[in-house]
Each structure stands twice: as structure tokens, then as C-alpha cells.
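1st attempt posting a full record on here, be nice pls
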Amino acid sequence: MAEYEFDVALSCAGEDHDQVLPVVALLKSAGVEVFHSPERQTEMWGLDLVEYFSEAFSRRARYVLLFSSKHYVDKWSRLQSRTALGQALEQHTEYVLPIRLDDTPVPGLSPHVGYLDLRLHSPKTIADAVVQKLAQHRAEFTPSTPITPQSVAALAREKPRGWEYLLYVTVVAQGLSALEQKYWEHFLRYAPRNGTVEHGSGITLIRDRNVLLGEIIKVAVDTVFTADTQEAAFGRPGVPGDPDRIVHLGELFVRTFDEILEWARGIHGTSYAEENARAAARVQAQFADQQLQAMHGVAQDLREVADTLVERLTAGEQINMTVPLVFEVDPALEREFKVALDRLSR
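the predicted structure (as C-alpha cells):
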């Protein structure tokens, strides 16, 4: 992990200093090491300022607090923003932490990035969010961190705001990443031969498979991902979560996803002597599509939220970790399946 001289570097226009100074004072009182250029005039004296700010905003600070405003965009601080944004792109992680002073967009900064707003959030709220962000960094925990007892303990020890969510996201993201090829193959309607050969109509096998898929979903809905089990893992409002239960719940999400994949994979991997049996089975395997897509989609959404978790929670956003168990079948697919079954009965 890179070592930084400063926890945060402040990037703002001179006209906005009066609004920014209360945040600076609160950060310092919280023990945050702050790079604030007006305080470093002696250090800057006689130096090439382009080089100086490039160094300060790309290598010396862990994060850049970018106070965006019309003044910011119009004036010399654009140099600072370009350097900071370049670093963010290079690192492929959150590096620029933007704070709005007005609604002027900053060129080069995605409109989808998480913002805080000094018009809506007090200087103390923003300073506290920075402290939480640094706690997350000290835990050295991101959605790519291997899940080990040591990494989980470090995250639980630092307890940055939303750490329960971050832990859950990491377990789910890593588990589904390992299943990505199998997921892709499902929608290619491919699976390696499993040695099973169906010589008859396959009606009994099809019925058994319907029961099996129904049981997978029923257990998940009625037993695993209930409000009570999620509260036991993540804790009631104001109560810390249980890291072991969070890891377990994330693993069960992945296991349920894999069970559904394996259910469909068993269909695609079976050989059928009768063409009508093969056709009906192939349609049946598509019953898994919507549930797999919903679970895969929520995992992607969780991952996208993770990098801006502190900002979102500070802004009052409600983060939803409910597992979407839709198990709905497209009516057109149901009609296609009924036609395929009718052919087997002739």
C-alpha cells in the first residue's frame, strides 16, 4: 500500500476559502493530515507551481477533496483538478472526493460520481465522512480484498461507516466472479455432457426438475434471506453487524446462485434420445434466466455502490441489501414450454 504524506489535499478556488476553512479546521482537530496550499506559501516560494501541484495532488495525498464551484472551474484551480482527475483514472479507484458549493459541473469529472454538498451537509458532516473514508482505507479493505480471518478482523476493527455492507459486497462480488464463466455458458445454452441419457419422453424428469427449482427458491425465500436473518447479520439500526454472519450470508447468496446455475447446467448437460424431450428440456432450462439475471444484476449494483459508500450514507441514501428472488417466468416462455410438453404427449 502506498504511503502518503497527507491524508487529504484540498483543491478549491480562492474565492471559496471562507466556506472551506471550517472543514479544514474540523479535519485538523480530528487528526487528519491536510495539504492546504494557502498554508504552504513558504514551501511553494520559488518553485515551478505546475510541478509542485502535480506532485502534491498525485503523489503526496491519499485523497483530494475537490470543492467544486463556478469559481473553481473558471480559475487557476483547474490545474489542480486536472492533476487529481488524472490520478483517479490512473488508480482506477476513488481518489477525488468532490464536494459541491454550487451546481457547476467540473469538466472531466463523471456526473455519476458520488458528491457531498456543503449547501446540504454541515462542515462537521463532511469532516466526519472524510474520517470514515480514511478508516476504510486503513482497513485496507476493498471489494477485491481476499476474504480471510485477518482481513475481516481488520475491517471489523476499523469499522468505517457501512463496513457491514462493504464486507457483504466483497463476499458476493468475489463469489460471483468465480462463477462468471459458468454464468456466461448458461446463456450460451451450453454445458459439458454429464453422462446422463434420457431415452423416453422425459416427462418425469421434467416434473422432478420443476420441483427441485421450486425448492431452491422456496428455501432461499422462506429460510435463508428473511428479514430476521438479515437483521441478525447486519444488525438493527444503530447496532453493529456480526462479521461472521455477514460472510456466511454472502456465501449463501453465491451458493444459491450456483445451485440455480447447476440446476440448468444439469438440463443442458443431459443427452436426449427423443428430439421433443430435448426441446422441452431446453425451454425448461430458461426458467432460471430471470432469477440469475436479477441476482447477477444486484451483485453488480452492490459493487458499484461500494466505492462511494461513505458519501452515499452521509448523503442519507438508503442502501438496500435485500436479495432479489423474483422467480418469475416470462408468459411467452411459459406458452412455449406448454407447447413443448404437448408435443411429448402425442
